[in-house]
Design brief:
The structure holds 3 protein chains of 3 kinds. Chain A folds into 2 domains: about 180 residues, Rossmann fold; about 170 residues, Dimethylsulfoxide Reductase, domain 2, CATH 3.40.228. Chain A is about 35% helix and about 20% strand. In chain A, strands 5-4-17-16-15-6-7-13-14 form a 9-stranded mixed sheet. Chain A has a 5-stranded parallel sheet with strand order 10-9-8-11-12. The longest helix of chain A has 14 residues. Chain A is globular and about 65 Å long. The N and C termini of chain A lie far apart (about 50 Å). In chain A, about 60% of the residues are buried. Chain B has 2 domains: about 60 residues, Electron transport complex subunit B, putative Fe-S cluster (3-methyladenine DNA Glycosylase II, Chain A, domain 3); about 80 residues, Alpha-Beta Plaits, CATH 3.30.70.20. Chain B starts with a helix and ends with a strand. Chain C has a single domain, classed as Barwin-like endoglucanases (Beta Barrel), CATH 2.40.40.20. A 6-stranded mixed beta barrel of chain C has the order 1-5-2-4-3-6. In chain C, a hairpin with a 2-residue loop joins β3 and β4. In chain C, α2 runs antiparallel to α3. The longest helix of chain C has 9 residues. The termini of chain C are far apart. Classes of the chains: A alpha/beta, B alpha+beta, C alpha/beta.
Chain lengths: ~425, ~150, ~140
């Protein structure tokens, strides 16, 4: 049997660093410790991308030149995607946006960007997953179902492992709480600590909990046993090290009054010691936010103008796709699958470039497709885990194409 | 899950003792724990009137064939490879405290559960707390499973 | 003008709110093969409360048409193994549910979670991935 390679998995933003991959003749033979998502990632997609212009196969140099021409000609190009790329490719993308005077945005724009922003500007306290494993005694999955999105979340960090301060394991030392609108796979594990709320009922539940913490009788417009809220408040108060994992269920429910999150955390922390961690999905979604922030001071939705980088909701991917962008380059994403069709329909009418290792829905309508090595499989680099920790990603197998970073840099050479 | 009563209903219920068990119910229990097989009941195998029962019994006993000696069955199609059982299993923790016990993939070959190609696999089953003389009805791998992929029969 | 008989025997329509969510099994098969049958099977799917399905006359596994102001798709209906809140339907993230989502995005975030739609039994086949591209 071949000796395994220790690998950091890019299947999701947990970036599990203990994966053992057995490789023979540049092919994966077996993978150990990775979940089903990680396994799918390691074994790669069935339909790999090819170089095309106007849906006809061309050599990669022709495709790159055509992409450069499109972007050079455009008045308002948008560079979008990035959450499935290494930080090195993201940095190249940000430089290309600057060179072109383009808008740049990532999938975080309609995902956890709003939460990551609160953490990065210091409005809410956060901690690392290692802190969670070693210290956490109370964890809350709020509008989050890690058993469906980040399979090893509970086993590797948040509930099951023995930690430095949690030697007796989950049975005695940890309490897991789930607040959701349905009894998810995660809720099933939280058993007696599952709080079922109506859709959109999160803000009220949060206010009710704040009342409970402050010793007031909580009021709710929907039917909910107030006694259970008071019991939950008591559990939160007693926590030595608490963590709230924010899922998209919560983000989308309170996005119009997102300040409530920091108000809730500061109220909670008058009585207790709680931290917040966003459940970012794609492996390097958070990396894009860090890298763009370093360059511009903003985490996403940025336009590079004559007066420098400017942020704004009008530079978000959805606003740009609806009206604004007159050419789009997508790197490592499939907007036709992941964004509303009512918005992506316009992609058929404007020049569209796709840089991706795999053939996907978007490649079926793209004017130019450029294949690239899969980040974290054929191409190494760094990425930022969902808690903000920077991780090294080593390549597993040799690819025979360019990395996404190289594709972006080649386009940059041709436009400047 | 198959119960002894369900199996008993399909047996001749004559308590003829030809299987060396005192009653048909005892034989049902023996079938369930796989210490006896259908073929050890002569009336069931030989008599025409039990053909239907025999076929039904074979169907319900089929899943037991894949079970480990402790009765462990892993439904691979339901497993997401989350590793909750890997970290929760007390034998995994005792035999690999700084690997499985801390949430990592197992670091040695002495564990019961490990995830391979996205699915959990069982080994060293004789170490399971449900095995042997002092066995207990441990549920440490069943309860943490989010998809009901682990079952004991 | 001919009388539109079909209008009177049309299957009843019900209002539902669709919540999109993730699923590890769908995510892994779609990562392997976005155009494969497994990805379609696990994506073109809506999960509903079993009692409510009975009330709506929808059998487990039946095809249903979901229609919103922004689009319409045919998917398979499945009964949830647990009791769910009334009036909700759950779909896994993907192009099928995204065909129903509004283009109104005041804060730059589409309404992925509370999609107002109508559900009705359908004799049409499940919307294929190629058809979605043409919508």
């Amino acid at each position: 049997m071949t000796e395994p390679i220790t690998w950091t998995c890019t299947g999701c933003a947990l970036l599990c660093e203990d994966i053992q991959v057995f490789i023979k003749d540049n092919r994966v033979e077996k993978v150990e410790h990775a979940c089903l998502k990680g396994k799918a990632r390691v074994y790669r997609c069935k339909h790999t991308a090819i170089s095309t212009v106007d849906q006809d196969e061309v050599d990669v140099n022709t495709a790159i030149s055509q992409a450069a021409k499109i972007l050079e000609k455009a008045k308002n190009p948008l560079l979008y995607g990035w959450s499935n790329s290494t930080s090195e490719a993201q940095v190249a993308g940000i430089e290309l946006a600057q060179t072109l005077g383009a808008c740049i945005d990532s999938t975080s724009s309609f995902c956890q960007g709003i939460t990551i922003n609160e953490i990065m500007n210091g409005s809410v306290p956060s901690c690392t997953l290692e802190d969670v494993r070693e210290k956490a005694d109370v964890v809350i999955y709020w509008g989050a179902d890690p058993m469906s999105s980040h399979p090893r979340h509970l086993s590797k960090y948040s509930y099951f492992p023995r930690g430095e301060l949690r030697q007796r394991g989950y049975e005695e030392d940890r309490t897991a709480i789930c607040i959701d609108i349905t009894e998810s796979r995660t809720a099933k594990i939280c058993k007696g600590m599952f709080f079922s709320i109506p859709p959109g009922g999160d803000a009220e539940f949060m206010r009710a909990l704040m009342d409970g913490l402050a010793g007031r009788v909580p009021k709710l417009s929907y039917d909910f046993d107030v006694k259970r809220i008071l019991e939950l408040a008591a559990v939160l108060k007693k926590a030595e090290f608490g963590v709230i994992f924010v899922g998209l269920g919560l983000v989308y429910s309170i996005k119009e009054e997102f300040d409530l999150i920091s108000e809730f955390m500061s109220t909670l922390n008058k009585f207790s010691n709680f931290f917040l961690i966003p459940m970012a999905g794609h492996f390097n979604m958070r990396g894009f936010n860090h890298n763009l922030h370093e360059k511009t001071g903003f985490i996403h939705r940025v336009a590079f103008t004559k007066n420098g980088p400017v942020p704004g909701v009008e530079y978000s991917v959805v606003e740009q796709l609806k009206h604004g962008a007159d050419a789009v380059m997508v790197v490592g994403s499939d907007p036709l699958a992941s964004l509303p069709l009512s918005i992506t329909r316009r992609l058929k009418d404007i020049p569209l470039i796709l840089v991706d290792p795999c053939s996907n829905l978007t490649s079926r309508v793209a004017d130019v497709t450029i294949p690239c090595g899969a980040s974290g499989i054929e191409v190494g680099g760094t990425a930022v885990r969902l808690d903000g920790r920077k991780m090294d990603i080593s390549p597993l197998i040799r690819g025979n194409g360019l990395s996404d970073e190289m594709v972006v840099r080649r386009i940059m050479e041709e436009v400047s | 899950m198959t119960s002894a009563m369900e199996i008993y209903q399909l047996l001749p219920k004559t308590n003829c003792k030809k299987c060396d068990e005192s009653t048909c119910m005892a034989f049902a229990v023996a079938l369930l724990s796989r210490t006896k097989q259908c073929t050890e009941c002569p009336p069931l195998m030989e008599e025409e009137k039990y053909i239907d029962s025999r076929q039904k019994l074979e169907t319900i006993l089929k899943p037991l064939e894949g079970a480990e000696e402790t009765g462990l069955i892993i439904h691979e199609e339901l497993c997401s490879g989350c590793g909750n059982c890997v970290v929760a299993c007390p034998v995994n923790v005792a035999n690999d405290p700084y690997g499985s016990g801390k949430g990592f993939g197992p670091t040695n070959g002495k564990v019961i559960f490990r995830v391979e190609n996205g699915k959990v696999k069982a080994a060293n089953i004789e170490e399971c707390r449900r095995f042997g003389k002092d066995r207990i009805l441990c549920r440490a791998c069943i309860d943490p499973c989010p998809t009901e992929a682990i079952e004991f029969v | 003008m001919a009388l539109d008989v079909g209008k009177f025997i049309k299957a009843p329509e019900y209002d539902i709110k669709i919540i999109s969510r993730r699923d590890v099994f769908q995510a892994s098969v779609c990562e392997e093969d976005r155009f494969g049958d497994d990805c379609l099977e696990l994506s073109a799917l809506i999960v509903l409360d079993a009692a409510e399905m009975k009330h709506m006359g929808i059998l487990d596994g039946a095809n249903v048409r979901l229609a919103s102001k922004w689009g319409s798709v045919v998917v398979r209906a499945r009964a949830s193994p647990r009791e769910e809140q009334k009036g909700l339907g759950f779909m896994v993230n993907g192009p099928w549910v995204n065909a129903l989502v509004s283009d109104e995005t005041p804060d730059g975030i589409p309404t992925f979670k509370y999609i107002e739609a109508k559900i009705t039994i359908s004799k049409d086949g499940i919307t294929g991935i190629q058809e979605l591209l043409l919508l």
